[in-house]
Amino acid sequence: MGAPGTTIRSSPYERFPDGPGEAVFSIFSSADIYFAIGTAPDATSGTRRFLPANTAVDIFGDRAGNEKVAWVLA
Questions:
Q1: I want to staple 58 with a disulfide (CB 3.0 to 4.6 A). Which of 23, 38, 43, 63 is the partner?
Q2: Do 34 and 51 meet the contact criterion of CB atoms below 8 Å apart?
Q3: Distance (Å, rounded) from C-alpha 23 to C-alpha 20?
Q4: Burial degree of 31 (CB within 10 A; 0-12, 13-18, 19+)
């Protein structure tokens, strides 16, 4: 995403929740950001995580599906 906001696509429901699962999102940013994941994520004032610039991270959801990622500049 080229600007802060929330993804349009959401994570799928994982049919076998006892399995190892797969990353539902991979994030890489060229700037420091805060990001949140959930069905209605709020990276501004909700529960969020910090991601330093030029760092990649794989995000694993809760396997219930319909999760999105939101981000804002730090």
A1: 23
A2: yes
A3: 10
A4: exposed
